[in-house]
Amino acid sequence: MGFFRQVFVIMAKDLRAEIRTKEAINASLAFALVILLLFSFAFENSDESMKDNLGGLLWIVFAFAGTLVLNRSFARELPNDCLDALIAAPISGAALFLGKALANYVLVLGVELVSLPVFGIFYDVRWARQFPELLLVLLLGTWGLTVIGTMSSALTVNIRLREVMLPMLTYPILVPALLGAMQLTSPLVAGTPIGPETVTWLKMLIGFDAIYTAVSLFLVETVLVS
Amino acid sequence: MSAVAVDGVWKYYGDYPALRDIRLEAEPGACLALIGRNGAGKTTLLRILAGFSRPGRGEVRIFGKSPREGEARRRIGFIGHGIAVYDELSAVENLTLFARLYGLPDPRRAALEWLERTGLARVATGLVREFSRGMRQRLAVARAFLHGPSVLFLDEPFTALDDRAIAVLQGLLREALAEGKTIVMSTHQLREALELASHVALLNRGKVAFDGPRTPEMVADPGYVYERYGEN
Question: With a cut of 0.85, is the ipTM above it?
Fold first, then answer.
């Protein structure tokens, strides 16, 4: 079976299991919506400086809500020792990782796309004015979050305190990607397209994704087989 | 060429050597019963043989290949302590998933065939989380045999099995041996294991204390190996 077919089989398995149980997506979505609601009461929407920080707020919500999905990624394999069966199968660690990362990507993107209209209502923002560019930033930022989170999930899968360890590993590495995504998102939700002053952040986000995807694919076999 | 060759394998957990200079071989068609007290290193050795874990030192070969190579992995079947199937998927979805991962030509057909052989055809579309313990164990057996492995690593295969699952597993193991497949199993159920075994290896605190063919004395008295070569 080809590499991409293996990736698809793993991704489909994870998505099917999550659709049946809804254990990660429900928690993540509920968390995102509650935080958006609470922050909308905490901050004054008419404050102009607040408008400049909306990208940051949005990515903080996405990063924390995303962790709830990513935490389950490899932990899902622990009951019944299913990870052993996957490691024993003749598929590469890279295919296993990529399949899981893509399933997480779909789930985290789903949470983000549901959260955006809610964000627009609570914060009185016409966020869709630069939608294609905003979508590009969401796709790139979420991939960075997903790759780092999935790798951290693999690293912490056999640790008893993995729910604590995963954010501790994920967030520090994720800082450059989150910075880039925040810097790009704030003007975009305010209706300003990506210009010469922000395009560097876009390039940095692309570079971050490429580097960490390559590193993760290279290292995952070593991480899984100790 | 040996089906399974273990050459000078050491495994450390921190500073503690869980396995110490293990040297074993199993020829094609052999059934090696790996026995020893709890903590002797049986599970650690089986996990290294199956490629789940790397030895600190030494080498393992499955038909001349590293257990992490795709060709070797296609030839390995494993039953561990867990059933290694997904509770939230149905029986047929679980087996079809693994049939796809092993690249079988008609995954669904292979899955249905093994559900039939293990007496689970009636509940093929039922979710595993709704299965009884015995049904889950039979599904685990089907998952391990699904891709027609030529080497089987079984970690305590008879522990906690119900009568029907024991019968299914023993029948499949006898069939596998008749077809020239190789079995390495760790067990505390000496009587069941020695009935099948052609060779016996006793592990004692991470070292091989005895390794040789099964003898009539062992079958007559399953405690014989422990008494003769066991722990000091």
Answer: yes
